[in-house]
Amino acid sequence: MSMGDEAITSGKAARPSGFWRWSRVLPALLLVASATFIAAYYVPLRRAHMLLIAEQQSANQKGKELEQTLSQVRGELDAKTAQLEKLEAERRQIEDARRSGLDRIEQIKTELSGKLDKQIKKGVAALAVADGHVVVALPESAVFAPSRLDVSPQGQVLLCHVASALSAGNEAPIRVGAVSGPPDQTPPALLHDHPTPWSLSAARAASVAQVLEGKCAVPGARLSAVGHAGHDPAGAALAESTPAGRVELAVALPGTSAGAR
């Protein structure tokens, strides 16, 4: 065998030896590369992915809670809106009733003014609205006989006319009140029997009520009598020219709390 042949043979023997070395090293290199990739990229990406999932779940939970809160607030808002609408409807109803009541009051005053027109023009009657009542005030001089508690014939005619006007289409109770004038203007004969304004006004109110029942055909069940002495609940509503000593016939207006009693 020549030297050339030996060299060729020796080279062929060396090739398998190098191949086997690379076949052993390459898997190790691949393993190292894989571990490096996993450590450098996959693990952080996995952690980031899990973090995003957790954040998404938390966001979803918060979204559900916000939706529930929004739904609750929406329900409360709807309830408040319904309540406000109800209150507004009640307010409008009350306002309409008030306007209707005012219209009815003006209607009643107009009707009574027409029926008592002559008496009002003569100054023997005054008309006012006070405390839920329409009040007709009559000077004591137009009702009673001089220096007496008895109702005069002219006073009886006047009382019956007023009672008829107040009772037209209305069966509401009639409240008879009497207001006493200043003591120095009261006849001595009356002061002897009724020394106080309370006693005198109560006696005059009772006298008028008896005439309304006995002479004017007003049922006694509809009548009440009260003496106000010198304190007049309707005084502020009456004209200043109305005499201090007077008789008042009052009827509750329909639709008022006074009329409901």
Automatic annotation (TrEMBL):
Coiled coil regions in record: 70-104
Entries under InterPro entries matching the protein: Bact_OuterMem_StrucFunc, OmpA-like_sf
Signal peptide: none
Keyword Transmembrane: yes
Keywords attached to this entry: Coiled coil, Membrane, Transmembrane, Transmembrane helix
Annotated transmembrane regions: 25-43
Protein name: OmpA-like domain-containing protein
